[in-house]
Amino acid sequence: MKPSNLLIFLTIICAIVAAAFDANSADKPNILFIYTDDQSDRTVSSYERAPSWVDTPNIDRLAASGVRFKHAYNGTWCMPARATFLTGKHQYGVESMRMEGSYPGSTYDPEKTPFWMRSFKEAGYTTAHIGKWHTGVDTGYGRDWDYQIVWNRPKFPKNSGNYYDNQLISFNGGEAQMTKGYSTTNYTKWAQEYLKGEGRDEKKPWLLWLCYAGSHGPFNPAPHHVDSIDESIEIPFPPDFHGPRPGKPLYVKKREAWKLAQDGKYYTQRPPKGGEFQESSRRYQETVVSLDEAVGQLIETLKETNQFENTLIVFTSDQGFAWGQHGFQHKIAPYDANISSPLVISFPGRVPEGKVCATPVGGQDLVPTLFKFAHVELPWEMHGRDITPLLQNPEANSDHSVLIAYTARIYGSETRDLSQSTDEGSNIPWWVSYRKHNYKFIKNMLPGEIEELYDINSDPEELINLAFYPEYRDELKELKREMLAELRRTDSPFVDQIN
Q1: Which of 5, 181, 348, 483 lies 20 to 30 Å from 302, alpha-carbon distance?
Q2: pLDDT tens, 385-439?
Q3: Are strands 451-455 and 428-429 parallel, antiparallel or unpaired?
Q4: Are 157 and 263 in contact (CB under 8 A)?
Q5: DSSP single-letter state for residue 276
Q6: What single DSSP character describes residue 450?
Q7: Helical segments of 254-335, H only
Q8: Residue 308 gets which letter from DSSP?
Q9: Which three-class secondary structure state does DSSP give residue 145?
């Protein structure tokens, strides 16, 4: 085919796909947003970083029906990731939200911190939330959600560790009830009932934010999945499981989440303490097996109720979770092993099938994207950017960039005070990361600490800090300049203190 004809052909194809996004603008799709907890992209078998023994057939089938994003950064830990999803803003842009009382006690002012779901309600949607809640005692029932079955962790700190059983569950604003049964199974059953029409006007389009508590620690698999992964599998240690980790900040060099015991095995020092590396790695993945089954069950319910063709499905997690990489068993740190999430977006006839997008995207980008699909006007200026152009052409070489910021437990204008930038709880200083093309720039906010630059394509484990190489000095300067510009665009309270 001649180059000119090829260009015409590609232009026509892009126009057809773009038209699909705008067609039937009067028809608002249903939206099923599946949100898991601490689930690394390594736990999904279609991802490049997944070990060969990982198997998630249902999530893989969902990916085959839509677009899989290789580099998704929804947040740094549970609460701010959810705050970003609920507001479309970075943690430093979420006013009035704060931690208070016993962990995970927290609060916010709904007038100062409105959630965007009410805009969907005003546009004719019925809105629902099922599962974990981690952003203030006020869960928004009646104001933001028409239907809600919620495990309200901030309201019941003593119950907040019960990720897998015996949860205090409130049904549509009622008194919380002690609820037995495996949480992933319960949430899926309640979601299926909602999809079948429970508690909603079947004439209206619906939005369901389904927040699973798995695969968070203490990593308890469902009874029928215990020992489902072959014990003979030898799980290799990550390349920088041990120090000295040259080119890393001091807090990373000192990080040793796993300790060698007298039996010659490594055990975690983080809660729940005592987990042996090999066994606990399998247990973590076994919790994901239940999530994978849930995805299959939800899709089957959508098909049985003739809703699959008109439902936008998003599958992702709040952030990832490192398992020995850089010495961590944690999220929070700026490395892909810690915070990179799986992200799959599927919508029959509207999103291309079986495509992979290598362009990095952020949790703040997902919110304006939902508004675009739903044909709803944004209620305020959000920090993210609509990524439907990436969905139209997932394999394009895009300039879309992502900023990620970690400010521990501090939100909004209170992040202006950088004297707080060493978090005693995590022992991880505040940082800002900027991803564009194949590069990641990291600005550590602790005075005197080094900067970091990685080529994610050639160094996916982030072992070689290119900031020390003179030939990358110009690249680092340009990424830092763009990062500062993005911080200013999004009204960062601390941007002028970065040097």
Answers
A1: 181
A2: 999 999 999 999 999 999 999 999 999 999 999 988 887 778 899 999 999 999 9
A3: unpaired
A4: no
A5: B
A6: P
A7: 277-304
A8: G
A9: strand
C-alpha dihedral sign at 83, 307, 29, 60: positive
Residue 33 token pair: 């947003």
Residue 183 lies in a domain: yes
Extended strands (E) in 10-116? 30-36, 67-73, 98-99, 106-107
Number of domains in the chain: 1
Within a domain: 435:
no
- Write down the pLDDT at residue 332: 97
CA geometry: angle 24, 25, 29, nearest 5 deg: 85
* Cα–Cα dist 179/186, whole Å: 9
Taking the whole predicted model, whether its pTM rises above 0.90 is answered as yes
Rounded CA separation 400/434 (Å):
11
Round to whole Å and give the CA distance between 410 and 99.
Answer: 8
Terminal C-alpha separation, the chain = 52
The domain in which residue 87 lies consists of 30-397
- Structural domain includes residue 160: yes
Whole-angstrom Cα distance, residue 306 to residue 327?
A: 48
List C-alpha distances in Å: 154 to 103, 107, 249, 441: 7, 8, 33, 34
Instruction: Report the CATH number at residue 119.
Output: 3.40.720.10
* Whole-angstrom distance, CA of residue 286 vs CA of residue 301: 23
What are the φ and ψ backbone dihedral angles of 318, each rounded to 5 degrees? -65, -40
d(CA 495, CA 478): 16
Q: What is the CA radius of gyration of the chain?
A: 22
Instruction: Answer for the pair 120, 374: CB distance below 8 angstroms, yes or no.
Output: yes
Say which amino acid occupies 160: S
Give the model's pLDDT for residue 14.
47
Q: Find out whether 216 and 163 touch, Cβ atoms under 8 Å.
A: yes
Asked if residue 282 is part of any domain, the answer here is: yes
pLDDT digits (tens, 9 = 90+) for 349-367: 999 999 999 999 999 999 9
Q: How far is residue 195 from each of residues 126, 145, 282, measured CA to CA in Å?
A: 12, 15, 32
| Six token digits for residue 103 | 């962990």
Quick one: tokens of 443?
């600005």
Q: How far apart are CA 381 and CA 149, in angstroms?
A: 30
Furthest C-alpha separation in the chain: 69
pLDDT of res. 426: 81
Write the CA distances from 276 to 215, 254, 328, 329, 380, integer angstroms.
17, 20, 14, 12, 47
